[in-house]
Amino acid sequence: MVKATKESGERKSLPQPRAWEVPPLDKPIVKESSLGRKAWIQPLRQSSCATCLGCARKYMFTQRWCIFLRRPTLKKALSLGRMVHRLMELGRPGINIVRKEVDIEAAEFTSIVERDEDLMGEAALAATTIYNNYQQALAMVTLLWQKHPRPDTYETIERERRILINVDIIDGKPPVFISVKLDEILQVKETGDLFIRDFKTTSSNIAYTLTGYSYSLQCRMYRLGVAVHQNKSPVGFILDILRKPTIVMCDKDRDYTEYVHTFKRGYRRGQTETRKKFIDRPPIFENYLDRCRQWYKDSGDEGVQSFSVRFVEPVLPLELASALRRVSYYQVAAAIPGFFPRDITTQHCKSFNRVCDYYPLCQTGESAWDAIIEEQYEVRTPDVEGEYKTKTTGEEGTPNEPEKSQTATQPKDTNSPRPADGDTDTPTDKTSTPGPTGQPDVPQGSKGDTIPT
Ligand code: SF4
Predict the structure, then answer these.
(1) Which helix (H) or strand (E) holds 320?
(2) How far is the CA of 393 from the centre of ligand 1 (A)?
(3) Residue 342: CB within 6 Å of ligand 1?
(4) Residue 338 C-alpha to ligand 1 middle, in angstroms?
(5) Side by side, which strands form the sheet with 154-168?
(6) At how many degrees (to 10) do helices 80-90 and 122-147 cross?
(7) pTM
(8) Each residue's pLDDT tens digit, 190-220
(9) Which long-range contacts does 4-8 make (Cβ < 8 Å, 24+ apart)?
């Protein structure tokens, strides 16, 4: 049994960790944690798994305690990525619908400015940003549609689909509760083969963006989700990658006439060049599209690309099973900081050249946490989609209903091997064993009660 130390004078002792339990599929569970704080149990999403594998303590803060730094209350403008997804979801006939949604969002920001409530200038900036994002998203998607039209040998069987499943990862322990959100599932009409389609927007070079994708958590979790949900293993991915152009629609995109200018003085005296005379009308989207094409050409990258990637590994490789099992421990363990180790490499404490939001807590003794959290953080109630609502600290929200959920085991028709007995990544020993440093030992007797090391 792990002996936990306390720093707060009020916290006399830490309770024993609970046995494994399988959360329900329709909503996150909220429970009172041992430190008088609410703690949630949420499905494992690829982003939360990645957080946990990088730093378990950060996972506890974001996914279990659900605390986040207080931010300015102004709603952020619709992001470029969300607009690209919306346009891809609705297709060409839906362009006007997306435009109306953008207009409504922009009008909200404009009304803040008109009411003189935009003290920091954020609403004015958001009103401009949202249109820039929309035009960039529309340009990227239009170029993709032109360059890679959808072959009619495929049909879409699911679109923007959230899948919630309890997956039996066949290691003798309880199923793992996971959630994946898929852009599209396609089926080849003739063969019935399934493909997962994913849209990605990036500001970087496309080859750089794709580094490690085939063995990434996202790629593997999506595949596992579809395999369980459809009871059939997908054969590959279709990846549409759209690189964000750094140019925005502006006055340069107005219509123009051309004329020949003759230099009258200077070293070019007597020479001529063709110049543009812009017509005093609003910019035209087609002109902006032409400029984007040229921008992609000049930057030496295709800009929009569509790849087909065939899966060559089992649906549930041991690497993935091991990672899911490790994270599923933190998903349900008692939300006590000592059980969630910090990232002692400190890599994630300063990734992307910025200090982690939770550093004020990690660098301070737990006895000071209540005051720090009260002053700097807020609790955001999660829903099953992984979206957080801003709430006053301690207030409990109502989770949204999911689209659909199911309990399932791994499909029978996959190539996934059953982990070998005695494999260290997927232990089958039913004896309670101490976990890694700072982790609890799990009570005996419950199904699958040892911790992967
Ligand atoms: S500051 Fe470092 S240790 Fe603390 S939560 Fe962030 S990444 Fe983890």
Answers:
(1) helix 318-332
(2) 21
(3) yes
(4) 13
(5) 304-310, 236-243, 194-202, 176-188, 154-168, 405-409
(6) 40
(7) 0.70
(8) 999 999 998 888 877 777 878 888 888 988 9
(9) 4/336, 4/338, 4/339, 5/338, 6/366, 7/365, 7/366, 7/367, 8/366, 8/367
